[in-house]
Amino acid sequence: MTELFAVLRREIIYIWYYFEIQFRQICWYWILGMLIGSFISVFAKDKIHGIFAGMKDKKWGLFGIIPACLLGIASPLCMYGTIPIAASFRKQGMREDWLAAFMMASILLNPQLIIYSAALGTTALTVRIVTCFLCGCAAGLLVFLFFRKRDFFDFSSFEEKASHDTHPDLLIRYLLNVWRNIKATGLYFLFGILLSALFQRYVPQDLMTKVFGGNEAWGVLMAATIGVPLYACGGGTIPLLQQWLREGMSMGSAAAFMITGPATKITNLGALKIAMGWKRFALYILFVMLFSFLCGVAVNLAV
């Protein structure tokens, strides 16, 4: 029994060692991401959505998906917050291809996640921003090509929710938003670091290289697939990606994971299923898996 406790104590020390190192490396990105994300949510969210709402009278045609994607990335809302906003835009006459681009980009990326992703290095951050932007554009283009004469979304079940950011004191409003951010992401962030520490301790580096490394399409497909069940929170997956990239994961595999993860996050899927219906929801899943795979292969060839 004494020997068992000694082994257990040794393993706990090892895991804590890996946990503490990665926590120190990444916690500042998490803190900065929350501070900036809350600032945008409190002071710039309405402005961003106002700009997008104002686009409905523009005669930009298909090219409107480009600013729609950029505004979707800038929006700090989660998908359950974005869809009621999109429903309001649709009632005002917004084009559905622009809405698809806005919503797809909003699912994949936001200012807070951009800051988190800076912990992965300049190359991974650039790949994430570019691929998420292209995914939003591709979603808008496909809706334009195949659903130009019929509705793609059904927003009848959604109503715009009241904002939480209503306190009359701006500083208190901002601090309350930061606190909500901490509660929403803190446990996922710590759990992600713990998983990363466990991977470092118990998963051989050569195994990660064999599964996700090189320029093999198989590694990209595996990363795209594992992103479906494993992704729970953007901040929580950054420590895992950081460790996997160190251990040989290819940049294309990381790109595929960074697309399928948020796109198939269970809360996002629940909201999208209601807004799309089963048939178009199945098309959405097919699009995400195919785009992430092709994108990962392209990134491996380019990087």
Fold topology:
Layout: H1 2-43, H2 45-54, H3 65-74, H4 79-91, H5 96-108, H6 111-117, H7 122-146, H8 170-202, H9 205-212, H10 217-230, H11 234-246, H12 251-263, H13 266-276, H14 278-302
Helix pairs in contact: 1-6, 1-8, 2-3, 3-5, 3-7, 4-5, 5-7, 7-12, 7-14, 8-11, 10-12, 10-14, 11-12, 12-14, 13-14
Structure notes:
This protein has 303 residues and is mainly α. The chain has one domain (2-302). It is built from 14 helices and no strands. The chain has helices spanning 2-43, 45-54, 65-74, 79-91, 96-108, 111-117, 122-146, 170-202, 205-212, 217-230, 234-246, 251-263, 266-276, 278-302. Helix 7 (122-146) packs across helix 14. The N and C termini lie far apart (52 Å). The model has no long low-confidence stretch (mean pLDDT 85).
